[in-house]
Design goal:
Shape: extended
Structural class: alpha+beta
Strand content: 25-35%
Largest sheet: 6 strands, antiparallel
Distance between the termini: 23 Å
Number of helices: 8
Radius of gyration: 33 Å
Length: 501
């Protein structure tokens, strides 16, 4: 079984701050909020667009203009793999002496997986490797562009009406009016002897000739005519050859091939054309509460490194099911878990029940309300389109355990991570802590084996508890004078131990 199989990853699940259960490889850790974040707790932002084949970066405006496709790379219309450019030589008449034949180098597209070539559909060869390959033209492209412009104008007019209603009845200052409506530029034009507005040629923000549409054109609808209706009797029926002649399925396209070219949807394989390769993106992820970056890749598309990568794997102790004895219902069974400390500072681990975890959370919430530090849902300043949620979800993860687990009462010390510890012949430095031999089974560097007991009540054994540990935050606050802060973090964990007899 692969270590990345979904069945294996779901053996140990951590509870996110939103209530969902995820493996540690799918979680982030916010060092400002000191809490776990999953894919639903972060906001995604597109950093850059690039082609996965030629690794060419593309600005967002250009990618939108090219419909998120690369202009130089193509996908095979038959199997979907990347097409490569092949060179061959053909004999053509010599320009000096037409009676003599000379070799000329030409290029065509070929797929190395299914052996499809551009010559199969009669696509002419090109004289250069990056030649402009002929493409099909959509007969409805002009109509679609007109509709897009029409609805874009309607959206712009509705936006202006919404802004005017928002400021209706409010006393506006002179500075606000001058910034919003360009009164300063109007006064400047009057002083220079020009008209206050350059009708028909002034821009939206400053009255510069040729900068855009005039103020009288804002919200003006595009002249668009309704589509010409077509009678059902004029539409051609299916050809009669489908009922009389045998169908050659080898020359018919599949649904995947037709959906890859939605504009044309060819029916035969000799009508399929190469499609431009889709662009890929590099995205950064932010915490929805404090809006700090949790993951930010480097801009270079050939690099797989990250500028910021706050994965939970590097900040939260990892729990691995090390050994499970055969289990029977109604009987206590021992099992061993391996706990790994990924940080460079030592920590003290304590295993508590979910009831104690809920009591601690309730006390913290009550103390926060007394101090007036209750969280306020406000609109994001970075992403105004993300509105705060008005639905409060109920946590359904606390009553899913199917077995009773016996937890140790003693605290366990986790040594810091040391990459050179495997070459050290000495023992583990416990920093003055004494292990309970009934709980700690073995130690090795920053790893420790902890023994627990479980009493299954159903066939599928699922145990739940919480780990409470000391986290050393290396982010220096402005008012802490560069002092290292230590916080106590408690995270619920759910283990799937398998089936009981």
């Amino acid at each position: 079984m692969s270590p990345f199989d979904k069945e294996l990853l779901e053996k140990v699940l951590y509870r996110c701050s939103c209530g969902s259960r995820k493996p540690i490889s799918s979680l982030y850790f916010c060092r400002h909020c000191l809490d776990l974040r999953c894919g639903f707790c972060v906001s995604h932002e597109v950093d850059s667009h690039y082609c996965p084949n030629c690794m060419e970066n593309m600005p967002s405006a250009e990618a939108r203009l090219k419909k998120n496709r690369c202009a130089n790379c193509f996908d095979c219309p038959h199997c979907g793999h990347t097409l490569s450019t092949r060179a061959s030589s053909v004999s053509v008449p010599s320009p000096d002496d037409p009676t003599k034949m000379t070799a000329k180098k030409v290029y065509y597209l070929a797929c190395a997986f299914c052996r499809w070539t551009s010559r199969d559909i009669g696509l002419p060869d090109q004289l250069v490797a990056s030649g402009a390959w002929p493409e099909q033209t959509n007969p409805y492209s002009e109509r679609i562009s007109t509709l897009q412009e029409h609805y874009r104008t309607i959206a712009q007019r509705e936006k202006m009406e919404k802004e005017s209603r928002r400021f209706l009845g409010r006393k506006l200052s002179y500075l606000h009016l001058s910034d919003k409506y360009g009164l300063s530029s109007v006064a400047a034009r009057k002083r220079s002897g020009l008209s206050s507005l350059a009708l028909g040629a002034s821009g939206l923000t400053g009255g510069v000739a040729g900068a855009g549409v005039g103020r009288e054109d804002i919200g003006r609808l595009v002249d668009i005519a309704p589509a010409t209706p077509v009678s059902l009797h004029e539409i051609n029926d299916l050809p009669t050859e489908l009922l009389t002649d045998p169908i050659d399925m080898y020359n018919m396209t599949t649904l995947e091939q037709r959906f890859a070219q939605v504009e044309f949807q060819p029916e035969r394989v000799d009508k399929i054309y190469p499609t431009h390769k889709h662009l890929m993106i590099k995205r950064s992820q932010r915490c929805r509460r404090c809006e700090h970056n949790l993951s930010k890749p480097e801009y270079n598309p050939t690099s797989i490194k990250f500028k910021i990568q706050l994965a939970a794997y590097y900040h939260v102790p990892e729990i691995i099911i090390f050994k499970v004895e055969p289990m029977e219902r109604g009987k206590h069974t021992r099992f061993v878990i391996k706990v790994v400390n990924p940080t460079n500072s030592g920590s003290v681990l304590e295993v508590v029940s979910l009831a104690e975890y809920q009591d601690t959370k309730a006390k913290e919430d009550a103390a926060r309300k007394e101090k007036g530090e209750e969280e306020k849902t406000t609109v994001s300043a970075i992403n105004p389109l993300r509105q705060p949620s008005i639905v409060e979800a109920t946590d359904q993860n606390m009553n899913i355990a199917t077995a009773e687990v016996t937890l140790p009462k003693s605290k366990i010390y986790l040594p810091p991570r040391d990459d050179a510890a495997e070459f050290d012949e000495g023992g583990v430095d416990l920093a003055g802590h004494v292990d309970d031999r009934d709980v700690v089974m073995w130690r090795k560097s920053n790893k420790v084996g902890i023994q627990l007991k479980v009493k299954p009540s159903e066939e599928n054994v699922l145990v739940a508890f919480a780990i409470q540990y000391q986290y050393t935050n290396t982010i220096f606050a402005h008012d802490s004078k560069k002092e290292v802060r230590t916080a106590t973090i408690c995270v619920p964990v759910f283990l799937n131990l398998g089936k009981a007899a």
